[in-house]
């Protein structure tokens, strides 16, 4: 069965096909891959086999693993993901680590705004790692439904409020100069790059990935509006695209007023996190 699956996935252009097949079998049975490997000579019951073949067919259509099983792990927390939410990426964990480090260094009842919350991964991790109160927004009502479910499952409800909003548009006057920190992993892929992106990523919501104007459209709007919602000396942590540092830096220097600007590198030594102080 695993050999058949590995061939099917290889034909579909998937690398490490055998390994993926083992993970897919394990996930279907809700056991670990190691447990699968330890029991390779055991017979498989018919229901497990049917489910496995169905899941391999889905993966063969380049549906990401996370969407086949509707789950993802972010910073050690299991989250539900659906076709309405992005599947959280490892580099976003650096974004959260940096923001959490900052929040832990401050005292008081800190307020955080998470723009474009998607599955709620960032808001939930911040709630778990710090004592901040979080407002999480997204333009997508469907994504917010998943985020709110995840927040409930992780017992983070009391610390996170969800608001459907196109960036800052639905934030009332109560939120003016209210936040200590704004965090965001916004859409930042440009249309040219999107056209060449791998099939799995095309299964994710396009509006979670793509932004206008060299992919900088949403980033610029977030930076432009931030001053109204941040407190004095408030801070922004934002993920950016692998090649966007120069353009982002230029925009900030010319168009928005911040006192300190810093870029933090990801695991591949790419400037990935923008840290800005008002
Ligand atoms: C790159 S995804 C990030 C999702 C999640 N925070 C994560 O890190 O995996 C960007 C999110 O921004 C949302 N979004 C896109 N345009 C938006 C807008 N104008 N206002 C608010 N949210 C927006 C998308 O629906 C999507 O959930």
Can you lay out the helices and strands and say which pair or pack?
Layout: H1 2-11, H2 17-29, H3 33-38, H4 46-60, H5 65-69, E1 71-74, E2 77-80, H6 90-104, E3 111-115, H7 121-129, E4 133-138, H8 141-153, E5 160-164, E6 179-184, H9 191-196, H10 199-202, H11 206-209, H12 212-215, H13 217-229, E7 230-239, H14 245-255, E8 260-265, E9 271-277
Parallel strand pairs: 3-4, 3-6, 4-5, 6-7
Antiparallel strand pairs: 1-2, 7-9, 8-9
Helix pairs in contact: 1-2, 1-4, 2-4, 6-7, 13-14
The protein binds S-adenosylmethionine (SAM).
Protein architecture, described:
The chain is an alpha/beta fold. It has 2 domains: 2-61, no CATH class; 72-277, Rossmann fold (3-Layer(aba) Sandwich), CATH 3.40.50.150. Helix content is 46%, strand content 19%. The chain is built from 14 helices and 9 strands. The model has no long low-confidence stretch (mean pLDDT 97). Residues 86, 88, 92, 115-118, 121-122, 137-140, 143, 166-167, 185-187, 207-208, 218 line the site of S-adenosylmethionine.
Cα gyration radius (Å):
21 Å
Low-confidence stretches: none
Strand order of the largest sheet: 5-4-3-6-7-9-8
The CATH architecture of the largest domain can be given as 3-Layer(aba) Sandwich
Average of per-residue pLDDT values: 97
């Amino acid at each position: 069965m695993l050999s058949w699956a590995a061939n099917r996935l290889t034909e579909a252009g998937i690398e490490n096909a055998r390994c993926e097949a083992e993970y897919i079998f394990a996930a279907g049975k809700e056991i670990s891959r190691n447990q699968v490997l330890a029991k390779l000579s055991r017979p498989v019951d018919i229901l497990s086999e049917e489910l496995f073949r169905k899941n391999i067919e889905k993966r063969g259509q380049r549906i990401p693993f996370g969407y086949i099983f509707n789950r993802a792990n972010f910073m050690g927390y299991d989250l539900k993901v659906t076709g309405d939410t992005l599947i959280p990426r490892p580099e976003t964990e650096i974004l959260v680590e940096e923001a959490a480090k900052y929040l832990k260094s401050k005292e008081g009842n800190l307020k955080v705004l998470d723009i474009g919350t998607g599955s709620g991964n960032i808001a939930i991790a911040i709630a778990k790692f710090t004592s901040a109160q979080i407002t999480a927004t997204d333009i997508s009502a469907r994504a917010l439904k998943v985020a709110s479910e995840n927040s409930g499952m992780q017992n983070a409800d009391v610390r996170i409020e969800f608001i459907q909003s196109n960036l800052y548009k639905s934030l009332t006057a109560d939120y003016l100069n209210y936040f200590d920190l704004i965090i965001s992993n916004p859409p930042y892929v440009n249309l040219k790059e999107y056209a060449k992106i791998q099939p799995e990523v095309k299964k994710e919501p396009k509006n979670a990935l793509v932004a206008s104007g060299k992919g900088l459209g949403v980033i610029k709007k977030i930076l432009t509006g931030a001053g109204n919602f941040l407190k004095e000396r408030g801070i922004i942590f934002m993920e950016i695209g692998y090649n966007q540092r120069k353009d982002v830096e230029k925009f900030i220097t010319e168009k928005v007023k911040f006192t300190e600007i810093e870029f933090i590198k990801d695991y591949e030594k790419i400037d990935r996190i923008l840290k800005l102080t008002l």
